Records
---
Amino acid sequence: MAQTAVVAAPSHVTPAVRLDTIDIGFPERGGGYYRAVDGVSLDVAEGEFVAIVGPTGCGKSTLLNATAGLLKPAAGTVLIGGTPLAGLNRDAGYLFQADALMPWKTAIENVAVGLEVRGVRSAEARERATRWLARVGLKAFLDRYPHQLSGGQRKRVALVQVLILDPKILLMDEPFGPLDAQTRALMCELLLKLWSEDRKAVMFVTHDLEEAIALADRVIIMSAGPGASIIGDHRVDLERPRDPAEIRHSPEFGRIYKAIWQELKTEVIKAYEQGDQG
Ligand SMILES: Nc1ncnc2c1ncn2[C@@H]1O[C@H](COP(=O)(O)OP(=O)(O)OP(=O)(O)O)[C@@H](O)[C@H]1O
């Protein structure tokens, strides 16, 4: 581990998320078993923004799925606010690469529906959805259907669809992956703005190391699978509030990037070599 590495939060503070020595695997065709992640421990403090990077197929999504309660580890425990997770994680909001907008509902309906399902009156749900959509610059697009919105606009709707439910934990899996570079930069800026107004614990999976450093308080590096584990844990001590586009030009950013990339590169090469052999 590099010098910038940090250890878990002090033991007297209950983390928002604790992955305690978890193993996760999948049955393979023909009766085998693929051990995806092996002995992973990770604490995410309340209000902390943690980015997870690692070579393709190493198990980043698998870790998020376990934290969401969508996957049960073969061994180890997922603790949410100190309580072992059983079933779905109701404290978490999940944003995937592909958004979960319903094509037959307008932007406002897509955002309000989550509140309505929780018993909020329709008029109030719509009022709150309007406020949220206005916060992300979509007040003029309330009645548009998803196919009438740009990729970036749809992503903003998807983001507020999750945030309106006020989850304590935000799980984001390559959320800006399909967007063009400029839209992606604007989404990063928007995400940091919203997060700084109401700090949630965030686990953010990305392939983009620059994005990880620009956004996060800590960057976690996973090794190549099978049996992937955490091999690096770097604190990102860049000032906040940050402009995620501007901060990339600072010398401190360059130093952090270099330290993390040195570790990550080795794993990326390993994963490619395994792919070539496979
Ligand atoms: N349902 C499943 N059944 C069998 N194998 C699976 C399943 N889900 C994931 N895997 C395997 O587990 C490993 C980890 O997958 P995962 O999607 O978590 O990786 P990742 O790091 O998120 O990948 P990427 O960066 O490419 O999105 C991969 O080898 C994948 O093929």
Note: The pocket of adenosine-5'-triphosphate is lined by residues 26, 34, 36, 54, 56-62, 225 (CB under 6 Å).
---
Amino acid sequence: MRSVNSDMIQAFAALDTHRSVVAKTPMRDKFSGDPERFKRFSISFRDLLLDYSKNQIDAETMPLLFALGKAAGVEAHRAAMFAGEAINKTENRSVLHIALRSLPDEIFRSGGVNVVPEVHAVLNRMAAFSDGVRSGEIRGSGGQFTDVVNIGIGGSDLGPRMACLALSPYHDGPRTHFVSNVDGADIRDVLEGLDPDRTLFLIASKTFTTVETMTNAATARAWIVERVGEEHVGAHFAAMSTATDKVKAFGMSEDRMFPFWDWVGGRYSVWSAIGLSLMIAIGPAGFSSFLGGARAMDDHFRTEPLERNLPAILGLIGVWNRNILGFPALGILPYEQRLARLPAYFQQLDMESNGKRVKVAGGATVMGHTGPLVFGEPGTNGQHAFYQLLHQGTDVIPCDFMVGAYSDAKEDYNHHALLLSNCFAQTEALMRGRTIAEAREELKGEGMAPPDIERLAPHKVFPGNRPTNTLLYKRLDPETLGMIIALYEHKIFVQGTIWGINSFDQWGVELGKALAKTLLPMVEGKQSTDGKDASTAGLIAAARLLRGG
Ligand SMILES: O=P(O)(O)OC[C@H]1O[C@H](O)[C@H](O)[C@@H](O)[C@@H]1O
């Protein structure tokens, strides 16, 4: 398993040959030739519908992709993850974010030990703490907390930040704020206007060593000490980390410490203690529905054959687009303003997991491509910004559209129908395109003179045949959000398995961190830049000059 075997080579070769067959018929003709196409290439799970019919695929493509998934050992690797095997091989760790959403009587083992009792013990402590903060029983120096500030970065920021915004209609706790950047402007802007006597800080860091988070935490501590007094620091802070000794050294008491474990990757940690800000905002019951949605997707992923498995289908379509058709990027386009941070969240989830080029088995370089460049913005905003390139640019960029059938407010009816029509219209336009004959026809219909028609028509041509998936759900509630995130987690797992890389480490972020440490004394003027390349030394010198020292 997990090294390129002859079945995989054959499966890739078959897909490669098949590509030229598929390419003969553009998607618009595939749709007119097959009224069953939507039915054939869509799949539902609970209130989620995944329509993948607007891809460059035909009846032969999916069986070939399922054969590839099987040859790559997706099923066995999936079983290994659920069995708690140390599939994160470079760090020798189990990968058990799935245990974070388990039921109390389920069993997930890491190193032979069932982790579920510990998971639920922490969840219960988080619930008691959240209830206390929400009711005012747990309070600051000036009474009930009105504001909660999560200080963290990467996986200790993007998940709770994204989910708090996504579920804002479910907020009935204190306001939540997020500070991540080491740029002092970030924390300064957040603290401005907050009442120190009623502000709770949550320090979120898996390692409790991340320089951005530690710097911001120290600034927050100083803010409290200065305004409220050293003796109140304990009441205004809590921490979530796997490094309990470091949290203690920071001065945090046991009851303000919410642990998680090294078998949870940072970008998979929103379900753990890292989600405390979300739990305080929406309450333990809402958080439990969020976990429940993910658990439902886990069960689906674990038990369904690849042919009826949403994450597998989404992952395999992604491999088709990336490896066989050679498309370099993936747009994440939620038609849901409250999912504005979802593209950034999926960017870390996907690019930090699958942005790799070395095989987990043997250390050789992967042949071909791995993870795509992930980007996105909520629709309809993106339409008025970068969709021009999606429709008429020289690169083909597959996109995932997502939209809820309902908005949570009745008065949005008019807005929501427009939102839905825009979402569906974009996928239709990307698929159909517009031919030169159609462009001419349209201009003629507008009464344009023939020379002008000829001049303008080429600019009005849309090549079409551009792939999209559409994920339609009923409404964005905690359960649905949990399902969507878990869907993408498992999709990324399927792709990482096929590419033979370790989706659960992130060595690629280390070099820059190490170099930043060596540059700091140079930026501060305490050390010479001798030995640095001319650009780096030149930039440091120029910045020092501009800073006046
Ligand atoms: O939670 P922390 O240990 O503070 O780490 C925060 C983030 O920083 C790192 O550089 C990693 O790239 C991320 O995966 C991680 O989520």
Note: The radius of gyration is 25 Å.
